[in-house]
Amino acid sequence: xLAKLYILTLCALAFALQAQAQVLTGIDILQENGFxxxxxxxxxxxxxxxGIDRNARSTIDILFEAPQVNLVALYGPEHGVRGDVYAGxxxxxxxxxxxGLPVYSLYGPTREPTQEMLKGVDIMVxxxxxxxxxxxxxxxxxxxxxxxxxxxxxxxxxxxRPNPLGGNKVEGNYVEDGFYxxxxxxxxxxxxxxxxxxxxxxxxxxxxxxxxTGDQAPLHCxxxxxxMRGWQRWMLFRDTGLPWILPSPNIPSMQSALCYAxxxxxxxxxxxxxxxxxxxxxxxxxxxxxxxxxxKERLDSYRIPGVAFRTIHYKPISGSKKGILIHGVQLIFxxxxxxxxxxTQFYVxxxxxxxYPDQNPYPLKSTRMPDIVCGTDxxxxxxxxxxxxxxxVDYWNKDVAHFRSVSQLYYLYR
Length: 414
Fold this sequence. Notes:
The protein has 12 helices and 10 strands. It is of the alpha/beta class. Strand 1, helix 3 and strand 2 (70-76) form a beta-alpha-beta unit. The longest helix is centred in the N-terminal third of the chain and has 18 residues, at 2-19. The relative contact order is 0.12.
């Protein structure tokens, strides 16, 4: 009996170790290779607190302290290079107190680096954890940095990191003319199933690097990447064995990253609280006037594949609902591959409209932010009429097959 228990314990341990296979990110591989890609060059770095190695050391500090590397400037995206700027707040030009290096803002009046900002830089390194959703501003910063570096003939080196949504999930329509913006910079689906290095290669080669209006001539930079080791397309972030470092204040956990794709559009209206301002951002749909049991029952009746809901009651600790008891549902993915992740929020809005027709969560009137996040006004003008997912599902998925065929050309991993 003891021998059998011992064998079972060993099998369980082996399975656990296999499940936590250690993925090495681009910065880890760069260090292993002795920074050979950077030797003899003056280096600029676009990063934030999510740029760390497997031992949680900042990429800033790694490059600054490496004797083979001449780090000369830092470039701050939304939230800043050290993560000390809140969501939506401008990042100011400054000096990094730890290294004494100049920090140039890429989230203020200037989104694309000016040629003056790039003076004295031979190669621009990019190392930021992405969340795999088109409206997340860090990939927009990447595209604009690539564009500026193409103008200045500066090489760009992308240190790759896992897509926390995995490499198989693709959902949403392309951005249409008139709806390009800093939260819809490229003609890609809402959920695009690429790592940041794969996306950079696609942007560069397919001519998608056209600026925020989408009508500028594409520019191709001298792009190179440092791939990960050990990552496979089926992996979600939890499968990598890597520590999760929040890339922005409202993505504190791996679960927040998964749910961001499923609630971020709905959250733009402020009609339902999505957990932002509470301990589980992007995981909930709640309001003071919602009957949580009724909402769960209605959502369960849709039998959405791979998605489950539980009732929840909470008081947000910040934001417009601070201190108010609100009621609703918490989102749980039971089968990620089967789940219509980004459409889940539209099913929630459908259910809310059916239960509370006077509380329309998706108004027909022009609302710029949801339109540019969706990359079109078709969703608002069509879904907003009846709030039925069936009215938009074909449109939402119309570009998926085409993007899969194109994006596979840039896969670094299988």
